[in-house]
Amino acid sequence: MFELMDGFLKNDPGSLQKDILHHVEYTVARSRFSFDDFEAYQALAHSVRDRLIERWHDTQQHFKKKDPKRLYFLSLEFLMGRSLSNSVINLGIRDQCAEALSQLGFEYEVLAEQEGDAALGNGGLARLSACQMDSLATLDYPAWGYGLRYQYGLFRQIILDGFQYEQPDYWLNFGNPWEIERVHVSYPVKFYGSVTEEVVNGKKCNVWTPGETVEAVAYDNPIPGYGTRNTINLRLWAAKPSDGYDIESYNTGDYINAIVNRQKAEIISNVLYPDDRSYQGKELRLKQQYFFVSASLQDIIRRFKDVHGNFDDFPDKVALQLNDTHPSISIAELMRVLLDEEHLGWKKSWNIVKQVFSFTTHTVLPQALEKVPVDLFQNVLPRHLQIIYDINFAFMEELKKKIGQDYSRLSRMSIVEEGAVKNIRVANLSIVCSHTVNGVSRAHYELLKTRVFKDFYELWPEKFQYKTNGVTQRRWIVVSNPSLCALISKWLGTESWIRDIDLLAHLREYASNSDLQQEWMTVKKINKMRLAEYIETMSGVKVSLDAMFDVQVKRIHEYKRQLLNILGVIHRYDCIKNMGKDERKKVVPRVCIIGGKAPPGYEIAKKIIKLCHAVAETINNDDDVGDLLKLVFIPDYNVSVAELVIPGSDLSQHISTAGHEASGTGSMKFLMNGCLLLATADGSTNEIIEEIGLENMFIFGAKINEVPALREKDSTIKAPLQFVRVVRMVRDGYFGFKDYFKSLCDSVENGKDFYLLGSDFASYLEAQAAADRAYVDKTKWSEMSILCTAASAKFSSDRTIEDYAEETWGVQPCKCPF
Ligand code: 26V
């Protein structure tokens, strides 16, 4: 049935077509003479999956033979989005698939749209993991990703009357062709119970008698590299009841209840927690963390032991990367396994543990640092709590020798936080037990050293590093902007930049070439057209393609300052309304686009969404303003929507209060797509400025170091009149919902304005005006746009991953021959 070449599936259109028809009939179980777009998508996906599996097998075989040091990337979140287009591009079979389908009467692009998003993550951190997996595969690193297979991904955002409502994301309802269920790869994960001291073989031991066992079953997701046969694995764990689960009920004869109770085990991997940047020490969250970490470590140790007789080589063969503190319980778990199951003793176990973990932190907000109440820990993982206490005791002793009796510093650095509620500070545990702590941009690293982890930096300066984030050009140019991709390849005379991103810098040489400029802007226009169509379908608003598309898409949070953007739009509206006819002729038409999800419990963020809709309602229905200004909210922003929005943007906003965005990665995707940035000097923007130059961006606002002093200042001095005026418009009910918006207005006035909207407002408006002036000069604007793409090379996740491999993990590429 399948056409093989040298034992491999063939990739010509004819063979692909046969495979697709085979899957229509035998996998999708439809007649090959009658199937619809979705069924054709399923059959295509299965045909691609077959090819992924071949490569996956070869890669794993090769890794096994070579036994290199492997990187294990532990993350509670992976925001993969759709897989089809990414896979066919990385496999190099995009055109063949399109041809095979066209002969069957289907259009490739239409089928690709049938796929839903895999949204097993919240935002920045989760999409970063996905980009990094793509780079790890492409650069041939012997890596594995480990995470949780949530039944429900990130909630869907529904907008009714301008208010956000959350709906569950039933992403598995229509099947998932990209995963392979491994019914035989499963491990028991234990919770609760008690610890007793016992004498085993003449030695005193702590014995944990758990109270509950849940089975972790593996689902493998092949991740293909681009231009290589290497295909790595993302292994996600699903919770299933173990054979012994709730055995008591069976014994008491309550058969029906016993079956019903068994389902409770599955709750662990049911749902992804939305990120609201505050940890509340929830039992289920702790269980999720331990569940995936325990299963992953059992899997990693089994693989290691298949080849190695003892643990001496463990640090030379295993690198464990902690993606934020979410998987940090793995530190205590590895210690427990080595101590209690492998009986290596404390010294040897600790020596191994401290060599294998590296930790990357993704936050600057202290309230986002994870803390788990000791009581909760004691109940769920009593043995792990003991181990953490022992680690902390040893650390405190060592620290006292170094710094003496400085009790306030000792208590700040302790892993255990004393107080009314005793907590485990997971970040402190991670720092103490990792060989390296990474920040995600240079600015973030400076903040870690001087503020967030100052005490630790002073103790162990050599532990601290940073790897500026990056995004994959495969997803963010090749998949999402095929016309730009073709144009870049044409002008560079090669497609090699898709693997070797530094080549992109050569675009600089042609930035002032009028032919390129013209072709470049034509591509932008086509992408704007696609976006305009989408906007019209989603919101019913017709937008002009001559207008500047000005976009802010990201999670809604006060520190990201979508409110500053909206107040700026109100100001623009107010100015237009007060202009005469002649003055209006000079106005640069704008379409302001905002999109993003508010955390379900975050009241102010939800009000910002409502305000955006209320203002949009007024502006978009004002015929007097017409095409000069439109405001639209794009609902349910996700990876697929981003793939549509980013290529069609002229200007994008990254306007967090300086010192609050650890890095920001959205800006890098816009940069790659030739979109100009209007931004504060926060996170990775500082490094973007270095690459592209201030003259090609619109930078405004207080600098990181100025923020603390500004917060001290009297608020009445800070806010300019224009600011007072626009806030007053909202307060007075110009956009309706007067009472509802009161608390939102209060949050930026009356001495509160913690995120400094008032004090940055004037310079924000200046930056906006500078963007208007630049947009009028089409030649200049096209040149700047080309320079953006040319300057984006540094922000490829390929660069980030190479730096991690070299400076943090100590892993080398292991390329699969063929
Ligand atoms: C926190 C929580 C707390 C409640 C439970 C669920 C949950 C999930 C995630 C988080 C922390 C998310 C941290 C995060 O996404 N940070 C972002 O990481 C990006 C990649 O490094 C970076 O570009 C952004 O600046 C940073 O905000």
Automatic annotation (TrEMBL):
Residues bearing PTM N6-(pyridoxal phosphate)lysine: K669
Protein origin, superkingdom: Eukaryota
Keyword Glycosyltransferase: yes
The UniProt record lists the keyword Plastid: no
UniProt cofactor(s): pyridoxal 5'-phosphate
EC number: 2.4.1.1
Chemical reaction(s) catalysed: [(1->4)-alpha-D-glucosyl](n) + phosphate = [(1->4)-alpha-D-glucosyl](n-1) + alpha-D-glucose 1-phosphate
Gene Ontology CC annotation, any one: cytoplasm
Keywords, alphabetical: Allosteric enzyme, Carbohydrate metabolism, Glycosyltransferase, Pyridoxal phosphate, Transferase
GO molecular function terms noted in the UniProt entry: glycogen phosphorylase activity; pyridoxal phosphate binding
GO biological process: glycogen catabolic process
Family per record: Belongs to the glycogen phosphorylase family.
Functional summary from the UniProt entry: Allosteric enzyme that catalyzes the rate-limiting step in glycogen catabolism, the phosphorolytic cleavage of glycogen to produce glucose-1-phosphate, and plays a central role in maintaining cellular and organismal glucose homeostasis.
UniProt-recorded name of the protein: Alpha-1,4 glucan phosphorylase
Lineage per the UniProt record: Eukaryota, Viridiplantae, Streptophyta, Embryophyta, Tracheophyta
Residues of the full protein shown: 168 to 985 of 985
